[in-house]
Amino acid sequence: MMFPGMWRYAVAAGLLLGVLGTAHAQEPALCAPFEGGVVAPERVRAMLSAAEDGHLYRIRNSASRVGFCVGSKLTPIKAEFRNFQGGVSLWPGAGEQEQAMIMIRAASLDAGNRVTDLLLKGEDFFDVERYPEILFVSTEIHWDGTERAELKGNLTLHGVTRPVILQVHLTRIEQDPGGHVEKVLARAGTTINRADFGMGALPGLVDKKVELCLTVEGDRYEALPQSARKGSTVRTVQQ
Fold this sequence. Notes:
Helix content is 8%, strand content 38%. The chain has helices spanning 41-52, 114-121, and strands at residues 56-59, 65-70, 77-81, 84-89, 101-105, 109-110, 133-144, 148-157, 160-175, 181-193, 209-220. Strands 1-4-5-7-8-9-10-11 form an eight-stranded antiparallel beta barrel. The two termini are 25 Å apart.
């Protein structure tokens, strides 16, 4: 899985698209992973609208990390997902319009050990053949200042959807001479009980609590020329 700038961020969710591009905002590829009933159509339309006005930040996969860690009686298990797409819409002065979403390909899990990879991808845990995608879609973003936020949303994992709350910290890392935030860095995390998502195998060996962590870099989607954008300063984000 993450998100006044939060994502002005999130972690928009995912927290929240995917591969960078300069094509028009209405191109099918922009929100393709979330279309076809995967996410409510009105949310997809809102993301496309944000892209048109220069308020959409797309996750740069190559500069981002999405993973988890869980304790065990043998050794702590740490793993990352190598394939994910998402973005966040950040509207100046309009928090109710901000949202994040992220799609993770479960089979891209990498724990750095073949045996562990096979175990985690198998039926007892992620069961990647039956449940190839992990999805987070935000429902609310509450800002505490301009850098920290509480991101609420629904996490779909192993075929189960449950509400989660991500704690997010957003940093502006690139700004153009006109004061527009062109790039953001979001760090987000939460803890879940794996049994809540039908992944309760090996309870005596692997801890129940799993820490999810995301560090994602987002670039503002270039749909319109800079001169044509309307007030896309993403409320002023402080470093």
